[in-house]
Design goal:
248 residues, alpha/beta, four-stranded mixed beta sheet, 51% helix
């Protein structure tokens, strides 16, 4: 054996004796267990932080009744707010009373306000955008209020924390539990004052879930985003895999 090769083998043998023979447990952890654990975490991290959801086109189905939707609501949302903008004693008040009935039957608190600025007191928001209100309906006008010849005009407001995740295979998306049932309840109350036929046609309106992106496109975007992060940050992680072999 050449002198240089003999010297190298002597150093390698010495390091193996010190690291592997005298300290087998710590050597196994540093050189095998820890690197494998880091590799597994880095390889599957994109699935850990990706919420379980499906994009694409779902199946058509009925909209939840307001009573069923209230029973499915969560997060301590035990109230509802209505804003009439001072338009009392007419159709707007009657619609509010109709929509408020399921909440009253469920033991929820009804907030009737005269201005949108009062919603902050009725439905105080946390730093995460969560309130104690199922939602809020702000009425701006009706055919007779504030002047005759107008149109029904209202706005539904909900927590900014809602709608973060969406799954076309689920029946409990935030829009299905909070927005759609409340909107249809308002529309039914309005239609009942227009004609029975319009109210009956609204009863048949269903829901059809879909997203702008397909499931394949979502998965591709997730992988590409993860790879971009790997180019920027994972070099340090992979370099640390060698520390167990280099540090004694």
């Amino acid at each position: 054996m050449p002198p240089f090769a003999r010297q190298v083998w002597t150093l390698v043998k010495k390091d193996l004796l010190i690291a592997a023979v005298r300290r087998p447990i710590s050597m196994t952890i540093r050189a095998l267990v820890l690197p494998l654990a880091i590799v597994l975490i880095v390889s599957y991290a994109q699935y850990f932080f990706n919420p379980p959801q499906h994009f694409g086109i779902g199946q058509p189905g009925p909209i939840l009744s307001l009573s069923d939707a209230i029973s499915r609501s969560s997060g301590g949302r035990n109230s509802i707010a209505f804003v009439d903008n001072g338009l009392t004693g007419g159709d707007i008040s009657a619609v509010i009373e109709d929509v408020a009935m399921p909440f009253r039957n469920a033991g929820k608190t009804i907030h009737n306000k005269a201005s949108s600025s009062d919603l902050a007191d009725a439905c105080p928001s946390s730093q995460r955008g969560t309130t104690s209100c199922y939602g809020a309906v702000v009425f701006h006008s009706s055919p007779d209020e504030p002047v005759k010849g107008g149109d029904w005009n209202y706005t539904i407001r909900s927590d900014t924390s809602l709608g973060g995740n969406f799954d076309v295979k689920s029946s409990t998306n935030d829009a299905q539990v909070y927005l759609l049932p409340l909107q249809r309840a308002v529309d039914l109350a309005i239609a009942s004052r227009l004609s029975p036929s319009k109210e009956a046609s609204l009863q048949k309106v269903g829901q059809y879930l879909f997203t702008q992106e397909s499931e394949e496109k979502r998965q591709l975007d997730t992988r590409q985003s993860y790879y971009r992060a790997g180019v920027s940050y994972f070099g340090v992680v992979f370099f640390s895999l060698w520390l167990g072999l280099c540090i004694k």
